[in-house]
Amino acid sequence: MIQKTFVVGPLQCNCTLLACEKTREGVLIDPGDEAPRLISELQKAGVTIKYLLHTHAHFDHIGATGGLKTHTGAQICLHQGDQFIYEMLPAQGQMFGMTFQAAPPVDHFLKDEEVLRFGEHSLQVIHTPGHSPGGVCFKLTSGEESVFSGDSLFQGSIGRTDLWGGDYELLIGSIKKRLMVLNDDILVVPGHGPQTLIGKEKRTNPFLN
Ligand SMILES: [Zn+2]
Ligand SMILES: [Zn+2]
Fold first, then answer.
1. Looking at the whole model, is its pTM more than 0.90?
2. Which end of the chain is more exposed for a tag (fewer CB within 10 A), N or C?
3. How many angstroms is it from 144 CA to the middle of ligand 2?
4. 41-80: b (≥16 Cβ within 10 Å) or e
5. Ligand 2 centroid vs 57 CA: distance in angstroms?
6. Which residues surround ligand 1, an ion (CB under 5 A)?
7. Per residue in 30-56, pLDDT tens?
């Protein structure tokens, strides 16, 4: 398994490349910014991208989606609950003083517990609404288990809930019911900041205790 995380854009979004070493087929999670750099990383890794996966549709996670779509032709995947946020990318940018073109249309709406295959590996979708209505996490179901938690769960913190469709109680419920039930030794790769472990967050995350 090829697994590389790139920190992109002014908000330092963690964008992760996962690819099958044998077939060179892969996915890119949260291409938030710096399309030219991500494209050159894909070329360097010698991989073909099947899916552009999004944990949610805030601009810092979808800013390079258009550029990556043009270059890779990969399927753009998002939960339908975030489509209204996805469609307002230029307006999101304005709010934060940045300029974005409208993002190309979503090709595939992600469903809770759906399994996405790439090469000899697969990811499972876990719907975790609260930071946004269509927020999801992706759990690697082969090899070293990892969960890509977007802005739902961070090391020692959780995502903000004051943006479009955010809901604090819903987010806490999503994390407790869907993430804190996973094995303690599962690696968590959040949308921002350092990696952590499910067990460590169970014991020490102040929002969950
Ligand atoms: Zn976000
Ligand atoms: Zn974010």
1. yes
2. C
3. 24
4. bbeeeebbbbbbbbbbbbbbbbbbbbbbbebbebbbbbbe
5. 9
6. 58, 151
7. 999 999 999 999 999 999 999 999 999
CA of 22 to the centre of ligand 2 (A): 32
pLDDT mean over 74-83: 98
- Spell out the residues 6+ positions from residue 194 whose beta carbon is closer than 8 angstroms to its own: 155
All structural domains of the chain, each given as residue ranges with its CATH number in brackets, are 2-204 (3.60.15.10)
Compute the Cα dihedral for 94, 11, 4, 157 and give only its sign: negative
Distances (CA, A) of 30 to 88, 121, 164, 176, 181: 17, 18, 18, 23, 24
Ligand nearest to the CA of 132: 1
Distance, CA of 20 to CA of 23 (rounded, Å): 6
Residue 22: band (very low, low, confident or very high) from pLDDT cuts 50, 70, 90: very high
Q: Answer yes or no: is pLDDT of 144 > 90.
A: no
